[in-house]
Amino acid sequence: MISHQTGPSITFPDRISAENDAEQLHNACKLLSTDEETITKILGHRNLQQRYQIRETFHRRYKKDLVHVLCSATKGDYESLIKTLFRGSIQILAHDLYKGLKKPDIVNEIICCCNNNEIIMLKKAYQEVLQEEEPKKASQRTLETDIIKETKPPYEQLLVALLQGKRDEDPFELVEEAIRTRSTSRLINRSQVEKDVEDLYYAGEKRAGKGDSETFIKILTKRSKYHVKEIWDVYLSKYHSTIVEVISKKFSEPFRSGLNTMSVSLSIDIYYLYLSISVAQIIK
């Protein structure tokens, strides 16, 4: 049997017997003292899909939810670990968000780094967390309502704008063309870039006192990542300062960190396209 290495010491088999695993887990929870060693041996060496398979088999055989049974038989950190083992990556982020809504660094690292599709999945997963943690109130709450409750403008407005998931997205064929032709010209509307750069200048550096947060939110949360990259370059060339510097001077926390986290996330995505273009140029 071949095993795959997924980390320094964790492996999982290609094939499992969900029936056998379900039975062993059932027996491990029947003892006066829960057999956590058996639980760890099984669940710790199964991938997420296999754990789902075991959960379905357990429910079919015993008419009970495996996670609920395991959590009832365990406590504290081990119970939390059990729940985490049955969550996918988006579900884990949604749960972290639920627990950390009062912490801007957690909120920024999750919401400000998601693309449109990830935002859709995150909102759905958050609703599932609410149903799990606070079932009586879940129908009256959403990620947006919780964000509005826990934050204040302009930070609130930034997060709500991102949760709308309406950032312009470049057609896949144009991205492929950019790599093939070694040019991003068709990904970018030059006249719109010039207008956005001017609007940001007058909303930031040129404006007395604090910056105009609405303009920064409207542009930086809606334009495509390649368009935003061009804004940065043109702004630097025209006004000899970076967008990040303007944000840092004109806005306070946590809005400032939210904008900058989003900017860094976009720049990482853009890096891979430009890396592909550079590789194509070298090969040619």
**Percent in helix:** 55-70%
Give the strand order, joined by hyphens, for the main sheet: 1-2
Number of H/I helices: 16
Rg calculated over all Cα atoms: 24 Å
Categorize the overall geometry. elongated
Terminal-residue CA separation: 44 Å
Structural class: mainly alpha
Features:
68% helix, disordered N terminus, 2% strand, 284 residues, elongated, mainly alpha, 16 helices, two-stranded antiparallel ribbon
Short description:
By secondary structure, this protein is mostly helical. Helix content is 68%, strand content 2%.
Structure report:
- With 284 residues, the protein is an all-alpha fold.
- The protein has helices at 18-30, 36-43, 48-62, 66-73, 76-85, 89-99, 104-111, 116-133, 143-150, 155-163, 172-181, 190-203, 213-220, 225-239, 243-250, 255-283, and strands at 3-5, 11-13.
- It has a two-stranded antiparallel sheet.
- α9 (143-150) packs antiparallel against α10.
Helices and strands, with pairings:
Elements lengths: L2 E3 L5 E3 L4 H13 L5 H8 L4 H15 L3 H8 L2 H10 L3 H11 L4 H8 L4 H18 L9 H8 L4 H9 L8 H10 L8 H14 L9 H8 L4 H15 L3 H8 L4 H29 L1
Helix pairs in contact: 1-2, 1-3, 1-4, 4-5, 6-8, 7-16, 9-10, 10-16, 11-16, 12-13, 12-14, 14-16, 15-16
Organism: Schistosoma margrebowiei
Protein name: Annexin
GO cellular component, one term: cytoplasm
